Amino acid sequence: MRASSHVLPWAGLAAALLLGPPQARADEKKPEPKAVELISEWGGPFLHDPDLKLFAPAAMYVETDEEWAKLWKAWRGDDAKVPPVNFKEQLVLVVTSRNDKTALSASLDAAGNLEVKAYSASPLTVVDPARKGFSFRLGAVSRDGVRTVNGQPLKKDAPPGAAAADEVAERLKRLEQANAELRAAVERLQKEVEQLKKK
Is residue 159 classed as helix, strand or coil in its secondary structure? Predict the structure, then answer.
């Protein structure tokens, strides 16, 4: 019994040394994501045709010359020359918003996740809910260290069919939104007609 009474304190001391102070473990924090510099950046005029938003990739980036050319020509027109991008080393991030001007930011964490965000570049802008269309911002960034974008694997690493499924889901979401806006517009018109009849 005496031997065991001497062993237990030493065992507890060893465990404490291995685990470290409880407060120190609780205070440990993951490294903050680092801001990613945009190699190139492009914008354009406000697009009043909401259907053009269907060209926006659900993954919020393009990674091939074909995707890039299709998006550029849809949003900038056939007369605008498609800027060259080295897609072996870069991705082009794509963000949109209903503001007059849109900006984008990107940050990369230690796990290789690239977080892409859109924000308004028009201070104190009040968006008219009845206005159709969107603005956009495009930015080229390095692929170096990027494993996922907004938590989703890069297309080349994703399971077969995943990208197509995401694209269909995103288009369905946009169509449902457009349908809701159309119903709201019809209801407003019906109310106006009823008011005119009462006069």
Answer: coil
Burial pattern 150-175, b for ≥16 Cβ within 10 A else e, equals eebebbeebeeeebeebeeebeeebe
What is the pLDDT of the chain when averaged over all its residues?
A: 80
Helical H runs in the chain? 2-19, 22-27, 65-76, 162-198
For CA atoms 178, 158, 108, 39, the dihedral sign is negative
Query: Which pLDDT belongs to residue 121?
Result: 77
Per-residue b/e over 84-101, b at no fewer than 16 CB within 10 Å? ebebeebbbbbbbbbbee
Give 57-71 pLDDT, tens digit per residue. 999 999 999 999 999
Residue 35 bridge partners (DSSP): 107
